[in-house]
Amino acid sequence: MSQRIKIKALLESTTTDIDVTVKGWVRTFRNNQFIALNDGSTNNNIQVVVDFENANPALLKRLTTGAAISVFGRLVASLGKGQTVEVKAHTIEILGDSDPEKYPLQPKKHSLEFLREIAHLRFRTNTFGAIFRVRNSLAYAVHQFFQEKGFVYLHTPIITSSDAEGAGETFHVTNFDLLNIPKTDTGEADYKQDFFGRATNLTVSGQLEGELGAMALSDIYTFGPTFRAENSNTTRHLAEFWMIEPEMAFCDLVDNMDTAEALLKYVIAYALDKNKDDIEFLTQRLLEEEKQKPQQERSEMSLTEKLQFCLDNDFERLTYTEAIEILKESTPNKKKKFQYPVEGWGTDLQSEHERYLVEKYFKKPVILTDYPKEIKAFYMRQNDDGKTVRAMDILFPGIGEIVGGSQREERLDKLEQRMDEMNIPKEELWWYLDTRRFGACEHAGFGLGFERLVLFVTGMGNIRDVIPFPRFPKNAEF
User: Would you call 87 helix, strand, or coil by DSSP?
Assistant: First the structure.
């Protein structure tokens, strides 16, 4: 028997009347004659034609939805609608049965909520097949973008003793018997007896370690899992997610914005090129979903148009101060339509404010810069006005913030002063401060939440649907 060929390759083949071996899972079997077979390489099934008059009736009974089969047959031009080729089966082997009474994915429409409960099987649906092929392309494109620019891919630690953001929302890592934790004289946990000899947690960001790499290798990027013990049960938050974090030496805020915009455009263009069928399927899916919404809540653009729109337009760049003025004078703010009213400078922008700027005011992606230092992290470079820092956030339609970054504070005295103000212990970050003591230079970086990117490119509404096995409060299934 010839070597297995993937269904995507067969459907794109211009050669017919050849023997092929194809393997996959049965989607449907109708009239005891036509198998719709899928192997995950594409959403499109290949039709396998069974010679049912000469087939073993016991075999035909086992051709149920979800069964894994191997088919050896002839690839021929198809007379049926919807496909150019089909396989006339010579032999069919059942590789794995699927009991139709118990298999939860029958050929009908299933809700996303139901599919989340069976996340171990949802890859087999068209929607999730498309999502995870797009996710794969985006991940590949991220690496390709940075590698083409000469960045070094750095693996930063997953277990760390630092909380990069200073937010305290970390998952603790310990080797202690939780029923018998050793205590100090003052009754606190004695971490000196723990595995690492100190309190440790799962990383919330690879940024601080990434900066160390950039101070020797110039341009680095990390792309790995990060963890936030944030009790947020929303469509935008996960407890475990993937982050892309470049750090660049000899780089200011403008260089940082340019790199982030170029990255986003590059990966979106790559997915549009490599996943045409998947994005077209997701576009149609979204159109059907939007029909259920009131007219005023529907998107003005289809998914494909929205993605193309991001490629065709320069991102609007403005300061936080300018954004506050726009929001303060906006109709929704004056009519008290915002859940969080914008009262003036210093307001921490919420998703509704970010989306207003992107979707209603500028009608394109927006980069906000120069935020008040009080609402930003300690490591951001302080501006001469003493009030703002060289921060930048990129806001996307439907998502809000997709990228957060800044020029980093390279001046040791300013950084130490800010750490003191924010009660961040300098002795614990002595290694970070060393990069300011020995050969400091201006440098910048940003973080891109990968799932938010996938959410945007696939048009899905819930972040739990763009990561294979979502982790969120009270859920660590699979």
Answer: strand
